[in-house]
Amino acid sequence: MAQSQNDLPNLAEADWLNSPTLKAVFAVLGGCNEVRVVGGAVRDTLLGRKVGDIDLATTRSPDEIMQRSINAGLKAVRTGGDHGTVSVIVTREMITQVFEVTPLRIDVKTDGRHAIAEPTQSWALD
Q1: 55 and 102 in contact (C-beta within 8 Å)?
Q2: Considering just the CA atoms, what is the radius of gyration of the chain in Å?
Q3: How many angstroms separate the CA atoms of 126 and 106, rounded?
Q4: Listed residue (89, 83, 102) closest to 37, CA to CA
Q5: Which of 5, 10, 48, 105 could form a disulfide with 117 if both were Cys (CB 3.0 to 4.6 A apart)?
Q6: Is 110 helix (H, G, I), strand (E, B) or coil?
Q7: Tens digit of pLDDT for each residue in 74-121?
Q8: Contacting residues for 117 by C-beta, under 8 A, at least 6 apart
Q9: d(CA 68, CA 56)
């Protein structure tokens, strides 16, 4: 991966970001306005580490994630309980990959350890 001017890896050139399986999930969920890569994959790329899991956040509801995935011929399983996370399973060219897709949310009440969250459509609030 190429290094940027400030000597950090260029995230846009990460191989995993251009994989057919990830592109399939982006297409199903509506592209960059509706879904984004979050968490460890971004961190690990910037630190020059191998990327394992690819987690996504979306403006879509769990029901929308499920329905859009199923309609596209992908497998989708609710795995995130109160967070609304859906595991979207994509198989392309003999490669199976699981993406954890979580709707945007805001904490409305917390005791510092546990939070009660509500959905939001705002990337800034999440």
Answers
A1: yes
A2: 15
A3: 5
A4: 102
A5: 105
A6: strand
A7: 999 999 777 889 999 998 878 889 999 999 998 888 887 787 888 889
A8: 82, 83, 105, 106, 107, 108
A9: 15
